[in-house]
Amino acid sequence: MKELQIQYKKILADYLKNQTERNLYIGQNFIRQLIQKKVTPEEVISIHKHAVEQIYPDITSEILNSFDFLIEIMVHFGLTVQEHQSLLVQQEELRIEMNVATKIQSMLLKTAIPKVNELDIGMVSIPIRKMNGDYVHFLNDEQHYVSVAVTDVVGKGVPAALCMSMVKYGLDTLEYANNNPSYVLEVLNRIIEKSVDDSMFVSMFYGTYDIKGNIFTYGSAGHEPAIYYNSRDQKFYDLESRGLLLGVMSEVKYRQYKIHLEENDFILMITDGVTDFRKQGDLDPRNVIKELALNYINLSAQEMCERMYAYLKDLTDFNLEDDFTVVIFKK
Amino acid sequence: MNVNVQFREDGNVMRGYIEGEIDTFTAPVLRDELEAVQIVEGRRVELDLSKVNYIDSTGLGIFVAFYKKVTRENVQLRLVGLSSRLVRLFEITGLSELMSIETDAEVELKQ
Question: How far does the CA of residue A243 sit from the closest CA of chain B (Å)?
């Protein structure tokens, strides 16, 4: 402190003698040093007071008292600065923890697209923030079945991520059980309903494709309806099912439906982030998606998903505000 | 983006008029307003959504939570004045089977 005191006195004396930009600049640099050394604002005033006393030995006691007054009242200012600094440290700690959590989440929820000769599968899932509220889970049972769960957890950030892990483990546990969509949805609903608060829920579309029989069986829990393209009729059908969201009520029955897939038919499974055009005007988002799918029909399922995302991302009416997920099963 | 809620007692019915967009940012405001509503057994609660043009999934969560709360207290909840877009949202999520909802047109027909 003594050293700082001497340095400050010199800088102040120079400035008082000659009020140049340069002398001012030296003072500004000196204060940066003090900040780094965590010298509080009231200590700076105290340093200033001593320097003035030494430069002007005849200074009146009134002026000196006014410095003491300033030192006392600046104590609160110093406390606030300290608080701010400790918040900055805490914020940095939280940021690091958040990064770790994000890494863990993406590791836990990593999904590999199954390779099946008889079915072309594509997927794009893009989070709007660090943590993804959408989750796609594939199951592939030794070339007999390929199943997919497309989920959207309401809420964002950490609570949604925790809920998502629960969904993932629920689906993993059901892997070797009977994988009828209605059964899977009923079990998951019971698990989620017990564990989440009143305003939380999960929407899920669950589909199982029987590779030998070419039958796609599906059910939905409050999820955006999947879109089915029948190439023989050259028509789209919405796979409506109106099952209740997961986690709202304990005992809910879910219906399941079957469709037979023919060559070039495809099923487009999406989350509401895809159809959520806030300013939609006359534009029906689902029609936009269907048109896009038709444009890219000759591409692979993966390319179709990627092109759709690229197109929608640049569309002005489509203000991407939610996580975006598209999965395509193409025969 | 804002949401505004006003409640009016009308005999045995507590009517809430909601106006605005209900999304991640405005949902907490709506939640607080709905939490403050006095639920009295035997009285109905009716929420008028005719001036709501957008609800996202977080907003939907607020209605689900409110529905659960009033149902526990044996109070009936009705949502009225829903635009076709909102009706669609409640249908897709299966909530229309659970809650009593009415569209704009149905309200007009009654009057």
Answer: 5
Query: Which chain B residues contact residue A224 at CB under 8 A?
Result: 92
CATH number of the domain bearing residue B46? 3.30.750.24
Nearest CA in chain B to A248: B64
User: How close B36 comes to chain A (CA, Å)?
Assistant: 16
CATH topology of domain A2-81: 1.10.1240
Q: Which residue has the tokens 């030296």?
A: A26
Where does CATH 3.60.40.10 sit in chain A? 104-330
- Six-digit token string for A122: 């594509």
Contacts with A, B 52-111, CB within 8 Å:
54, 56-58, 60-62, 64-65, 68-69, 85, 91-98
Q: Please, where in chain A does CATH 1.10.1240.30 lie?
A: 2-81
Task: Tell me, rounded to whole angstroms, the distance of Cα A268 from its chain centroid.
Answer: 24
Residue with tokens 């940021």: A95
Domain that holds residue B66: 3-110
C-alpha to C-alpha distance for A68 and A91, rounded to whole angstroms: 35
Which SS3 state, helix, strand or coil, does residue A200 take? coil
Among B54, B56, B94, beta carbon nearest to A222: B94
Indicate whether A181 pLDDT > 80.
yes
* pLDDT tens string A102-125: 888 888 888 889 888 889 999 998
Cβ–Cβ gap A154/B54 under 8 Å: no
Minimal C-alpha gap between B45 and chain A (Å): 18
Give the least confident one: A57-71, A136-150, A296-310: A136-150
Q: What is the mean pLDDT of residues B102-107?
A: 68
- The distance of Cα A299 from the centroid of its chain, to the nearest Å, equals 30
The yes-or-no verdict on residue B111 having pLDDT over 50 is no
The superfamily in CATH containing domain A104-330 is PPM-type phosphatase domain (3.60.40.10)
Nearest to B61 among A199, A249, A276 (CB): A199
Alpha-carbon torsion, ordered A204, A210, A215, A221, to 10 deg: -10
Residue A283 in contact with partner chain B when CB distance is under 8 A: no
Q: Is B39 on the interface with A (CB under 8 A)?
A: no
- Residue B37 pLDDT level (bands cut at 50, 70, 90): confident
Structural domains counted in chain B = 1
A319 φ/ψ sector (left φ>0, alpha ψ -120 to 50, else beta): beta
**ipTM field:** 0.85
